Amino acid sequence: MYGISTRVGAGFIETIHRVISAFQTEGFGIQGGSEVVSAQLRSRLAINDDPYPKLGACSLQFSYQAIGPVRKFSLLSPCNVVVRETEDGSTRILFMNSLPTSDLANDPRALSMASVVRVKLGRVIESLRE
Description:
Elements: E1 3-8, H1 12-25, E2 29-31, H2 36-45, E3 54-58, H3 60-67, E4 80-85, E5 91-96, H4 98-105, H5 108-129
Antiparallel strand pairs: 1-5, 2-3, 3-4, 4-5
């Protein structure tokens, strides 16, 4: 499975704050914001859809490790995080599973790094479910 997701009962804005905090706790920096994709949809395509934040959650440490031994692996780094409101009022959080993308690098070092990242992502998910 290439994606990981969970649904939480918290509201949209609270969930974004919780997502950012959970990723930061695991050593990931966050780039982007809650209006980035929505603003582009409105300005470029005249679509006024629900908020659709796409956050970048990246670890400089893992990025640097990937760029060193497996330069092409940095292209595959799973940094995208999406937060969506659902029709029932809950909020869904989706992000990439690092393990399937590491297979594309065809290098055991990439799998090793992806395994460590996957454990961190698992802790993020668990903290959001609490």
